[in-house]
């Protein structure tokens, strides 16, 4: 009997099947071999189902890349500077109704004690965007009123750099190296006429970075480790401020993203700062493009359509989703959220509703509540700028010096690669079948022959005999 078992297990599945149905075998032997065959098929099925689940649910994995990325191959981060003040005191002469208008707005300005003491307009729910734009135009500081000097050292060149005006949670801010509003936002997105103007993108794309090694590119990059950006700020602003000491918020973020609260560095007078940048880079294989986002658990920048942004990133998606959710719940959005021209802006009476919507979205993001709307998967290709800050006492009165440069010349990369492709899946299935049943491609040919051609041959042979006998 042991010799028969060895003979059966060593043969292919088709030979085992022939052995099973042979007339010379006893009923007991046939039942025993049939049980062995069913057991093998059952084990194969379990393992193949397990392989299919791994293929379907986790086709990609993130591992450490083989080669590091050099500093000049990625964009230098966008630097956004937000001076903390309420309004330009000289603008009151050009805008007589500023005292009345500022009571209706909802930004960081509302945190000032002065505004809290004036509750005449506390019942304002909404206000229109046009007077708000006029208010910003008249009251916001221009970069040359608080930026004493700014220059970028790029290889052997040193060039002055300019800042464009943008609006975010901390009020009117000014950004360097951010994408122009025409490259970042869709036409339906309402951006103030004079805000968001930068250089146009050149020789760069979000997923491929600098695909041509040109000398002049935008967003800007640094070529060597000693290159840096230096910005000198006025430490004593001659404007009415929310607090007794003047300070600035500096935000480092990707050029293709809006500034977020998570990237804030507060700088104050009396100190000079050196910010060492340490990018965290994730790059995806192009082979993953054929997989659906739900399988690979990420989006390429052009795979997900956003209503306000041309470029998909996880942060842009979250901000847009929060804006849409706030508009649905409160009937308005904060002025710094992406919106179209007809959208109403939230007044102070809507502060509670806005905060509630932010808490609800935070619960969606943390997984405490199911997120039915956003589906903001991570970006397949991403750069997150982390940093270290060094401070020292300033030697120059009325000046805060901020220097930004890379910590290292090369950076390790996380690569998002194909873990379990189509070929791997079918090879795994073949290996499992071969292990338990001795099945192979040759066995498949034999099975087709035995179950179809052999049967047809016998039928034709029987018909031939009957016709021959009748003849």
TrEMBL record:
Membrane-spanning intervals of the chain: 31-55, 425-452
Primary residence: membrane
Single GO MF descriptor: ligand-gated sodium channel activity
Cellular component terms (Gene Ontology): plasma membrane
Record keywords: Ion channel, Ion transport, Membrane, Sodium, Sodium channel, Sodium transport, Transmembrane, Transmembrane helix, Transport
InterPro entries found in the cross-reference section: ENaC, ENaC_CS
Family: Belongs to the amiloride-sensitive sodium channel (TC 1.A.6) family.
Name of this chain's protein: Uncharacterized protein
């Amino acid at each position: 009997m042991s010799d028969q078992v060895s003979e059966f297990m060593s043969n292919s599945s088709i030979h085992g099947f022939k052995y099973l149905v042979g007339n010379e075998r006893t009923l007991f032997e046939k039942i025993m071999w049939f049980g062995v065959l069913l057991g093998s098929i059952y084990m194969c099925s379990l393992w193949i189902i397990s392989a299919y689940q791994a293929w379907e649910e986790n086709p990609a994995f993130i591992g450490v890349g083989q080669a590091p990325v050099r500093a000049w191959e990625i964009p230098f981060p966008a630097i956004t500077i937000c001076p903390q003040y309420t309004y330009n005191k000289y603008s009151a002469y050009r805008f007589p109704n500023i005292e009345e208008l500022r009571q209706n707005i909802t930004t960081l300005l509302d945190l000032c004690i002065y505004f809290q003491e004036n509750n005449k307009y506390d019942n304002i729910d909404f206000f229109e965007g046009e007077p708000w734009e006029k208010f910003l135009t008249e009251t916001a500081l221009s970069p040359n009123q608080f930026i004493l000097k700014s220059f970028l050292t790029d290889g052997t060149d040193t060039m002055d750099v300019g800042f464009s005006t943008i609006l975010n949670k901390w009020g009117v801010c000014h950004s360097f190296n951010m994408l122009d509003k025409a490259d970042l936002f869709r036409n339906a997105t309402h951006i103030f006429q004079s805000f968001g103007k930068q250089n146009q993108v050149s020789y760069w794309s979000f997923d491929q970075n600098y695909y041509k090694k040109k000398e002049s590119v935008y967003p800007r990059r640094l070529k060597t480790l000693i290159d840096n950006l230096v910005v000198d700020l006025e430490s004593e602003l001659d404007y009415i401020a929310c607090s007794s000491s003047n300070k600035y918020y500096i935000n480092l973020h990707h050029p293709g993203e809006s500034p977020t609260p998570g990237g804030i560095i507060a700088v104050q007078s009396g100190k000079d700062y050196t910010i060492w940048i340490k990018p965290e880079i994730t790059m995806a294989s192009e082979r993953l493009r054929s997989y659906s986002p739900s399988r690979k658990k990420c989006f390429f920048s052009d795979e997900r359509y956003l209503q306000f942004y041309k470029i998909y990133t996880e942060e842009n998606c979250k901000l847009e989703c929060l804006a849409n959710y706030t508009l649905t719940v409160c009937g308005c959005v904060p002025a710094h959220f992406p919106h179209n021209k007809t959208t109403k802006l939230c007044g102070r009476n809507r502060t509670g509703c806005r905060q509630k919507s932010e808490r609800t979205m935070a619960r969606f993001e943390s997984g405490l509540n199911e997120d039915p709307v956003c589906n903001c998967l991570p970006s397949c290709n991403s750069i997150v700028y982390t940093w270290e800050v060094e401070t020292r006492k300033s030697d120059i009165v009325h000046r805060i010096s901020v220097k930004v440069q890379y910590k290292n010349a090369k950076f390790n990369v996380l690569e998002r690669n194909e873990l379990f492709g189509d070929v791997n899946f079918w090879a795994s299935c073949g290996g499992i079948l071969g292990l338990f049943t001795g099945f192979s491609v040759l066995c498949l040919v034999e099975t087709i022959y035995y179950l179809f051609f052999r049967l047809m041959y016998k039928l034709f042979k029987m018909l031939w005999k009957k016709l021959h006998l009748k003849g």
